[in-house]
Amino acid sequence: MANPRSKYNTKQREVLLEYLKSVSGRHVTAGDVCAYLKEHGTAIGQATVYRRLESLVDEGIVNKYIIDANSPACFEYIDSDSHAEGEICFHCKCVGCGRLLHLHCDELAAIIDHLYDEHSFRLDPKRTVFYGSCENCMN
Amino acid sequence: MANPRSKYNTKQREVLLEYLKSVSGRHVTAGDVCAYLKEHGTAIGQATVYRRLESLVDEGIVNKYIIDANSPACFEYIDSDSHAEGEICFHCKCVGCGRLLHLHCDELAAIIDHLYDEHSFRLDPKRTVFYGSCENCMN
DNA sequence: TTGCGTGCAAAGGTTTTGCATGGCA
DNA sequence: TGCCATGCAAAACCTTTGCACGCAA
Question: Mind spelling out the 3-state secondary structure of B86-139?
Answer without folding.
Answer: CCCCEEEEECCCCCEEEECCHHHHHHHHHHHHHHCEEECCCCCEEEEEECCCCC
